[in-house]
Amino acid sequence: MHVQLWSGEPFISLDETAIDMVADIIRQEKARGALIILACHDYGYLSEASDEIFKIVGGKLAHHLVKDESNVFLEVAQ
Q: What whole-number distance in Å separates Cα of residue 28 and Cα of residue 31?
């Protein structure tokens, strides 16, 4: 499995065209089977692009969300 780490808020300071370009690259890599680890505060984009979200608060795992077959995020018991 190919793993990619995107950190440092990859969408910050980008205009809409550039955000769409980066989002398309991430979607293409995901479709090729890549595991993409994305550090970002843009929950709107994360919820669209992700199958699983880990929310870290104060350096600790606060929430683990997994998208079900209906594209709804459910919290995984910790």
A: 5
